[in-house]
Design a protein that fits this description.
370 residues; 14 strands; VC0802-like; 2 domains; RNA binding; 10 helices; alpha/beta; RlmL_1st; Rossmann fold; single chain; methyltransferase; binds S-adenosylmethionine; THUMP_dom
């Protein structure tokens, strides 16, 4: 396998592919292009590590390691046994295999998976385990088998800082991409007045301070064959936090949420740049240092009977924005268009539909308020 020019696939949250493409381009990844489900870039193994370490919007970083045609299981079995597994997998590290098949003569994904598992355990000796963090992915499409490795392991929204979780937390990868879609570049204050566990505020502070999102966690590629711990340690340490005077604010009416947000901010090392306060939306005032961006993901209300109460919450939020937040931009993330409209804010056309674990949500934005 040639490790110097790999096809690297960045898995996006459905609906947030475009900001991920922009992020990959800005971060200097070569040949960044949109592809179904994410963004492809090219580079060597160091670029694979760097994507895991630096990109805020990718949920996973996969690398394509091989591709061959196969029209029946015996052929797949033969080709899988010839595959140089030892180039990237270690005999003593357990492996998990996942397979999918579409429009192919090999239609039984489970049987295809077993062939790959057999080839890995017989030719390399690595144990197969459904619990393994090292994942080999087989995709069969129109009789072409493509093998990829999941180089991330645990999904990348798990930055390793959030232990305390309030209700319905936003994923960090989504929060970062919504901030980007709002034009946030780290240079203006951000306020989330229903901050829950503080995801938007903590992501915003990390962006402003230039902290790589993956600095405090482990990745599956650390268990690959040929992994170079010294080179990785150098890359991982190769950043300097930017000093920022900008402050990032979160408030919530719930005590538990504020405690969770503060604990998460301190684990992420951004407690110096963040402030959290117990406060109901009706009592909100613009913080110092503005105008900037208000971004919020209010409750959506899944239960019948919630709608009336929520209409009044969204309405009072909109009123507070219009009366006290002149010059601020507002971003509202919600699954319910009629609730977004209940804010009576001058909303621009909404962003694309984003899949938040099965719930379809969208970002509704304003320009700077009059
Ligand atoms: C969907 S959660 C936000 C989750 C958050 N984005 C996160 O990542 O953890 C909505 C939050 O709104 C808060 N909330 C609801 N009504 C409120 C009000 N009137 N004033 C302030 N906060 C309120 C709830 O306590 C809850 O934490």
């Amino acid at each position: 396998m040639d490790n110097t020019d790999l096809e690297i696939f960045l898995v996006a949250t459905p609906g947030l592919e475009t900001p991920l493409l922009a992020e990959a381009q800005e971060a200097g990844f070569a040949e960044a292009r949109l592809a179904p489900g994410g963004v492809t870039v090219r580079g060597n193994l160091r670029e694979v590590w760097r994507a895991n370490l630096q990109l805020r919007g990718a949920n996973k970083v996969l690398v394509r390691v091989g591709s061959f045609p196969a029209v029946h299981l015996a052929q797949l079995d033969k080709r899988a046994r010839k595959f140089p597994w030892g180039v990237f997998l270690k005999p003593d590290v357990p492996v998990r295999v996942e397979a999918t098949s579409r429009k192919s003569r090999i239609y039984h994904a489970g049987a295809a998976r077993q062939r790959i598992e057999g080839a890995i355990s017989d030719t390399l000796g690595a144990p197969i385990s459904s619990e393994a963090t090292v994942r080999v992915l087989l995709r069969i499409e129109k009789d072409i088998c493509t093998l990829s490795l999941d180089t991330s392991g645990e999904a990348l929204h798990k930055r390793g800082h959030k232990e305390a979780v309030a209700k319905a937390p936003m994923r960090e990868t989504m929060a970062a991409m919504f901030l980007r879609n709002c034009g946030f570049d780290g240079s203006e204050p951000v306020l989330d007045p229903m901050c829950g566990s503080g995801t938007f505020v903590i992501e915003a502070a990390q962006i402003a301070m230039g902290l790589p999102p993956g600095r405090d966690r482990a990745f599956a590629f650390q268990d690959f064959a040929g992994f170079d711990p010294k080179a990785w340690a150098e890359l991982r340490a190769d950043w300097v936090a930017t000093q920022t005077d900008t402050v990032f604010f979160g408030s919530d009416r719930n005590d538990g949420a504020i405690a969770a947000a503060q604990a998460n901010a301190s684990r992420a090392g951004v407690d110096g740049a963040t402030q959290f306060q117990k406060r109901a939306v009706a009592d909100l005032k613009p913080p110092m240092g503005g105008p900037g961006l208000v971004i919020v993901n209010p409750p959506y209300g899944a239960r019948i009977g919630d709608e009336k109460r929520l209409r009044s919450l969204y309405g009072s939020f909109g009123k507070v924005m219009m009366s006290r937040f002149s010059g601020w931009r507002v971003g509202v993330v919600t699954s319910n268009q009629s609730l977004a409209r209940a804010t009576r804010l001058p909303l621009l056309p909404p962003g694309p539909i984003v899949d938040h674990g099965g719930t379809k949500i969208r970002l509704y934005q304003t320009e700077a308020l009059p």
